[in-house]
Design goal:
Blueprint (H helix, E strand, L loop, with lengths): L4 E2 L27 E4 L14 E4 L6 E2 L5 H6 L11 E5 L20 H4 L6 E4 L2 E11 L6 E2 L1 H9 L4 E9 L4 E9 L3 H10 L8 E2 L2 E2 L12 E7 L2 E9 L8 H11 L18
Parallel strand pairs: 5-13
Antiparallel strand pairs: 1-12, 2-3, 4-5, 6-7, 7-9, 8-11, 9-10, 10-14, 13-14
Keywords: Membrane, Transmembrane, Transmembrane helix
Amino acid sequence: MIEARDTGAPETGRPAGGRDFWPEDDSKPGGRRKKKRSPKLLWGAVAGAVAVVAAAAAGVVVLTGGDDEEGAATGLSNGPGVLPTAYTPQMADRQMARIAQRSADQRPMTQGEVFSGETKTVTYQNYSFTLAGAQLSGDCKSVTWGQRLHDDLAKAGCSQIARGTYVSQDRKYVGQFAAINLASQEGADQIVRVMDPATKAGFVLPLVAPGAPKFGGGFSAAYAQAYGHYTIVTWVQRAGGARPASLNEMIDISLAVEKPADFVWGRLPDEGNGR
């Protein structure tokens, strides 16, 4: 697996508004479509694949201007202070109650588990992405920025963050995936809340892989959801940061890039025997 390093990103401008920008096929502006999931048979503990449906994210999208004047004044807008322009949060659902506590899922994540062979190439509809770089860190502070976020990660018992960079086969799109291992679902929900760009509390640092287009400058959209005691972040943009014609474009891209989140389903204890 290619190891990658952190880097900054250029400044971005504030996008213009427009009602036609919102997804035309969702009940709420910025809501993401529901996506079918299948549990992964990673350790043979799961007897068979059972189709399940999980909301990738729903509710409210927060539109920001990307890097703002305050960020530029502090030097954050051209580096660790990169924030998504659009942000959609979702708290954990009842399906994840069995791993609401890390005490029920004590085995640490591994890079090979999250970014398995099945997630080296990910697709959704007409979009196809290849994993360009991946990294697993046991130092949550080193792969995120923002003092308030750092404080909340520490309070929530963050032990690991796995990150991956995806590039579309036509190199027109770039995506970031992150899985954050926390002590409880309550902590995972809090991290989803505190990463809202409106708080300016901080965010996950983009992982830059060799040869991948730069990520972070211009327009980007992030979707964060608590999966039991994990927070999953999918962050996508057009290469170069151009604003898409519709947020639907970003939604569809994100549904490809979030594929590594399937590892969580393999960690659900079997309901029949409580394992």
